[in-house]
């Protein structure tokens, strides 16, 4: 499975961005798609996750501002981010769970200015 994240950029506080994670390869084997982020000086943290047949899960800091979704074929997973805050500034990564393995895409930088 190969993943390509995109959609990051510079946005003002209160603005919105939509990140995309395009998957290729054995898409039908993907059981879980997760967005993570890494901020300078902090550990990686889970932003949002979506499992086949499951409900979305979000990090505690999301507070209803973000929405994870996918297309019908699981070839693309989205992260709609609204009401962005400067503390949301981070490199965002997508990950696909296939059995016991996790596949990672390159990160996309989100910068939120105050």
Summarize this entry quickly.
By secondary structure, the chain is mostly beta strands.
The end-to-end span amounts to 37 Å
Q: Helices and strands: which structural class? A: mainly beta
How would you sum up the global shape? globular
Mean pLDDT: 95
What does the main sheet amount to? 7 strands, mixed
Unreliable residue stretches: none
Give, in order, the helices and strands.
Answer: EEEEEEEEEEE
Helix content: under 10%
Quaternary state, please? single chain
> How many distinct beta strands?
11
Sheet-strand content, in percent, reads over 45%
Radius of gyration: 13 Å
Query: Helical segment tally?
Result: 0
Which keywords apply here?
single chain, 114 residues, mainly beta, globular
Q: Describe it for me?
A:
- This protein is an all-beta fold.
- Helix content is 0%, strand content 55%.
- The chain is built from no helices and 11 strands.
- Strands 2, 4, 5, 6, 9, 10 and 11 form a 7-stranded mixed β-sheet that branches. The chain has a 4-stranded antiparallel β-sheet with strand order 1-3-8-7, with no helix packed on it.
